[in-house]
Amino acid sequence: MTDSAVRFEGISKFFPGVQALSDVTLDVAAGSCHALCGENGAGKSTLGKILAGIYTPDSGRLFIHGREVHFGGPRDALAAGVGMVHQELAFCDNLSVAENLCLGALPSRRGLVAHDELERRASAMLAEIDATVDVRRRLGELTIAQQQVVQIAAAVGSGARIIVFDEPTSSLSHHEASRLFDLIGRLRQRGVTCIYVSHRMPEVFQLCDTVSVLRDGKHVDTRPTAEITEADVVRMMIGRPLAEYFPMHGSSALGDEVLRVDALTCAGKFENVSLALHAGEVVGLAGLQGAGRSEVACALFGLEHVQHGAIYVRGSPAHIGGANEAIRYGISLVPEDRKRQGLVLSETAMHNTSLPTLHRFSRLSWIFRAKERRETRELFDRLRVRTPSLDAVVAGLSGGNQQKVVLAKWLAARPSILILDEPTRGVDVGAKAEIHALIGELARNGTAILVISSELPEVLTLSDRILVLRQGRLVGELSRAEANQERLLRLMAGLAQ
Amino acid sequence: MRAFVRRIVSSQETGLVVVLVLLTIALTLLAGSHPDRATGETINNFWNSHTLIQTATDASFFAIMAIGATVVIISGGIDLSVGSIYALAGVTMALVMRMLGPMSGTSTTLVGLVVSVGVGLLCGLLNGALVVGLRVHPFIVTLGTMWMLRGIAFVATKAESILVPSSLTAVTKAPLGLGGGLYPVPMLSMLVLTLVGTVYLARTVMGRHIFAFGGSIEASRFAGLALNRIQIGVFAVSGLTAGFAAFLGASFYGSASSGDAQGYELYVIASAVVGGASLIGGKGSALGATLGALLIVLIRQSIRTLHLDQNYEWIVIGCAIIVAVVVDQWSTRLTARRLSRATT
Fold first, then answer.
1. Low-confidence ranges of chain B (pLDDT < 70)
2. Among all residues of chain A, which has the CA nearest to that of B282?
3. Is residue A40 pLDDT above 80, yes or no?
4. Chain B partners within 8 Å of A347 (Cβ)
5. Does B19 fall in a domain?
6. In sequence order, what DSSP letters do the residues of A342-384 get, joined into one string?
7. Interchain contact, A355 vs B283, CB within 8 Å
8. Cβ contacts of residue A316 below 8 Å, gap of 6+?
9. Which domain range does residue B80 map to?
10. What pLDDT is attached to residue A242?
């Protein structure tokens, strides 16, 4: 293995509630562009972050150019020649480009920062990768694409011979992406090994010579891209027998149309989205991360500024200017980020549950606590929320129980339209099954439900109908009979059927 | 019942009460005594009705303002302008009284109360509107209004001290049957406001919303709360309590000037924080604020009672604030650890 730039040997990594990687062994050839593919949560980003020193593996060994290494942090990885270009920013956006590039070793004269020297060095680092960015601008003023260029310059400038790209194109325009690909091509000509984490097939096949597929934290296969097709990779990513997933609830007779969205546009987030929801129907909204799924949900809940389009609730036009108005229209949203958007972590389970519906338990601002307690207790019993008491602070509850509190909170609003954004993320298997059963039950009782999930099996299990978003546009609709993981993934990634 | 007892024992206010009681016992034991001039009885230098009520009266002005400050702090904000609101409300009341001339006792009280509380409320609304409208951090907004409001008071009074009608002083200095130069009205007002504040925070929708807002603005937005109204509301409450404290203070001492309550904002914030309010927001109580104010005043009093060098007062109070907050953080962390162990 003399030509191996990176060797992962038996790498495992456990996060609370999920085995992110188990026993992954794979080699990355020196000078190659190696893709790491997999569904959301397959472990591809985790593997990249282990290589860049951000995570330490629980077990297994890591070799760089044949020498075993132990990284205590990104600094160690950089010293060994491994740099990473992050999806989110890993720099100080309040400092200038030059300062960011030289942050580790600011040039100084008599204790003061030597600005001319600083700018000269930074410009040299950028010139090294044939990039031009004004080094005096604050990093935060740059576009995401320019910030990535700065990250790459920093990695190369500090001697990185191996660079990990973590979903670099997820927030780039088409034009910006092609400039990034040119840059990656130039890096390869200089012998830099690139590891490209992505689930976008066209990019993978355009850029990379080798592709490794991960599924559920396990290494499935590594193949040269010349030998396989995009469809092969997609099949490897899915892998499971599809028979495992069967419909949750029989398609009952469709009720009236309760929600209609007409050409809704939110600049920079999504465009021209039209959809309809009927009583008793579960509609899935699928898409890759950054496709605009949560943004659509927030827009329906009055939390995004909408430029064009109209929303109709039960046939009449609805002007939803905020969450309180959405609630009045009978819309509930279980948000994506439970800990930030769903819960006030410092408050008790009961206070969290009753927060949007306090008006029902109060008159002239005075809260009738007995009634509040009784109704919360009923909801908790129904959802089987396990808490020491109604007055337990939610920060201390498990993920599954926290999620059930969020569900209880929004069921308390008695919605006729329920939007669920990642309803089972980070939830254990038991609670997940309970939540799925609840969704089926709500639909049978006539609630119109829109489910967003990054887990395709979940979308397939729950939905009567699935809409697919790609880069802010609706690109397809599949009925339950038509839908399977492969077709969904192809639509999501923008492949021909 | 056992759960109730455990909740009381483990609550933060209990810790403060214990500290207050211990400090009182220590002071009583160490204070020494003197013979009463009239009766010849031996009287403890600290444990006598006069000193005790005097201490409570001193604390009452801070405490009332600290309850308002706590409401702001629970929302995650801060109000530095309470001392200036106090001064402006006090002088406005005194000026209005002087303009209106002599009136009956009841109408004097009523007018005084309406004017001072009204001015306080308006100033609070101004703070809230500036914070919400300009999207500037409360620290900066109230730092600005702290100078502005005191400046207005200064200009309006031409730096004079304005006398308050004696009929008003008679109300706030009413003996209420105690006699012997004891004036319990400020102390009783403090107790009533503590009760009102506790009920407001714990039992009303507004209180619940303030805790949610301070705990997580994002989650509150997703829950459909009227964020701007909540934020304006907390500053209104803070201004209101400062206005009420000004009514009590100006009528109790018989005059108002633009220099009144200078530096009170820091005592008030210290009281709230010692009482368990967290500057990050989402945590605090009205009872805690009152107990915090009592503790700070008691520490100040102990320096006098024990004939220590007065010059050390600030050093001792400064240390006490830091110690109180650190102890509170330790106990919160311990409780959190016990909680997480209980659920796993």
1. 1-3, 6-10, 335-344
2. A346
3. no
4. 211-212, 215, 282
5. no
6. I--TTSBHHHHHHGGGGGGGEETTEE-HHHHHHHHHHHHHHHT
7. no
8. none
9. 61-297
10. 41
Q: Domain for residue B329, yes or no? A: no
Residue type, A182: D
- Collect all residues of chain A within an 8 Å Cβ-Cβ radius of residue B339: 392-393, 396
Bridge-based pairing state of the strands A331-334 and A417-421: parallel
pLDDT for the residue B313: 84
Q: Which residues contact A18 (CB under 8 A, 6 or more apart)?
A: A41, A217, A426
Q: In chain B, how many domains are there?
A: 1
For chain A, where do the domains classified as CATH 3.40.50.300 start and end?
A: 4-241, 243-493
In the three-class reduction of DSSP (H, G, I as helix; E, B as strand; rest coil), residue A118 is classed as: helix
Q: Say whether residue B14 is in contact with chain A using an 8 A CB cutoff.
A: no
Residue B318 covered by a domain: no
d(CA B174, CA A123): 78
- Report H helices in B135-281: 138-157, 166-172, 185-203, 205-215, 217-222, 227-253, 264-274
What's the pLDDT at A241?
47
**Secondary structure of residue A400 in the 3-state scheme:** helix
> Is the pLDDT score of A456 beyond 50?
yes
- Name the architecture of domain A243-493: 3-Layer(aba) Sandwich (3.40)
Residue B69 near residue B77, CB atoms below 8 Å: no
Distance between B342 CA and the closest CA of chain A, angstroms: 9
Structure tokens at A424: 């089972």
Q: What is the signed CA dihedral for A457, A222, A84, A42, rounded to 10 degrees?
A: 20
Question: What's the rounded Cα separation, in Å, for the pair B93 and A452?
Answer: 60
pTM of the model: 0.80
DSSP track, B212-237:
HHHH-HHHHHHTT--HHHHHHHHHHH
Interface touch B224/A326, C-beta < 8 Å: yes
Q: Is B49 part of any domain?
A: no
Length of chain A: 497
Instruction: Give the list of residues 6+ apart from residue A366 with CB closer than 8 angstroms, or none.
Output: B203, B204, B205
Q: Does B336 touch chain A (CB under 8 A)?
A: yes
Contact B208 A397 (CB under 8 A): no
Please report residues of A whose CB lies closer than 8 A to that of B206.
365
Q: Return d(Cα B330, Cα B323) in angstroms, integer.
A: 11
Helices B49-74 and B82-100, axial angle in degrees (round to 10): 110
Write the ipTM: 0.87
Sign of the CA dihedral A180, A181, A182, A185? positive
- Give DSSP secondary structure letters for A262-293: EEEEETTTEEEEEEEEETT-EEEEE--TTSSH
Tokens of B155: 């200009």
Q: What is the CA radius of gyration of chain A?
A: 25
Q: Is the pLDDT of residue A277 over 70?
A: yes
Mean pLDDT over residues A240-265, rounded?
69
pLDDT in tens, B304-314: 888 888 888 88
Residue to mutate among A358, A364, A398, A422, with most B CBs inside 10 A, is A358
The CATH architecture to which A4-241 belongs is 3-Layer(aba) Sandwich (3.40)
With CA atoms as reference, report the closest residue to A56 among A73, A79, A44, A68.
Answer: A73
Say how far apart CA A221 and CA A208 lie, in whole Å. Answer: 15
AA identity, residue B161 = S
For B205, name the nearest residue in chain A, comparing CA atoms only.
Answer: A365
HSE, CB side, 13 Å, CA atoms: give it for residue B338.
Answer: 8
- Tokens 């993320």 locate to A425
Of B216, B222, B343, the CB nearest to A396: B343
